[in-house]
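Quick illustration, no need to memorize.
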Amino acid sequence: MKDKIIAKASELFLKLGFKSVTMDDIAGEMCISKKTIYKYFCNKEVLIVESTSMVHKQVHEIIDTIVAKNHNAIHENFEIREMFCDMFKNNIDSSPIYQLKKHYPEIYHNIMTTEIDLCSQWFKENIEKGIREKLYREDLNKEVYVKFYYTLIFHINENTVSEKEAQKMELEALEYHTRAMATPEGITELEKQLKKITT
């Protein structure tokens, strides 16, 4: 039952926002009493921590699955972006990350501390892969480019209220990041991926 509550809460938090969803809403959606929820979670904050932890675990598993497909580095980044768009497609009006930062800053800070480390590792591995594939330039300062990219992405998510607007800006950031690193072969691959989105 605990896992079912976390799954339903996660779905509602991502769709409607962390602030607006109440314990009553979750109980109503699941056709259970609020007392049942409080049996497992002493308050909403604890449920948010558990829910965000589950969502991040799912995201990491999906990213690992995408990486395992062994696409080239640029294709891989575009597929990961598409996965995030699919995940938040029901929440176009309000960015969950923005809401979390605004209403539950301590939970947000704890999550982001871990996320920055994990994302930095993924970004670095992607850059190394792209260099091996001759899609990114060999003379890149990998650490600096990793820092540039996660600063861009996290800044967009932290400060953009609308999820739709955040996704639009993330695509621009991905193009900007890729163009800055790409070889002529990389630019050709980038244009191919961008064309797939616009057609």
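The first helix runs from residue 2 to 16.
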